[in-house]
């Protein structure tokens, strides 16, 4: 009798598209979001606003904004808490 391989129960984060933006989820926990900036003026640094793990920024393309969110979430997981006792 061969042993059955256990299915991995670890959830992977995924992107969900929404109105005027995208949200990065892990199960039911929101990890970050990217929104489209409306009413952009000349000289504004970015078209997309992103927020994740206490950080925020702007980016010209959706792909760059999504990768910035993923990087911020990955860094927050690996970084030790400053005030942990």
Ends apart, CA distance between termini = 49 Å
Low-confidence stretches: none
Count of helical regions: 1
Q: Give the rounded overall mean pLDDT.
A: 86
| Total beta strands | 5
The sequence of SSEs as H and E is EEEEEH
What does this structure look like?
By secondary structure, this protein is an alpha+beta fold. Helices cover 20% and strands 34% of the residues. The chain has 1 helix and 5 strands, in the order E-E-E-E-E-H. The chain has one helix at 62-78, and strands at 14-18, 21-26, 29-36, 48-52, 55-59. A 5-stranded antiparallel beta sheet has the order 1-2-3-4-5, with helices on one face. The longest helix is centred in the C-terminal third of the chain and has 17 residues, at 62-78. It is elongated. The model has no long low-confidence stretch (mean pLDDT 86).
Descriptive terms for the model:
single chain, 85 residues, five-stranded antiparallel beta sheet, elongated
Describe this structure in a few short sentences.
The protein is built from one helix and five strands, in the order βββββα. The chain has one helix at residues 62-78, and strands at residues 14-18, 21-26, 29-36, 48-52, 55-59. The longest helix has 17 residues, at 62-78.
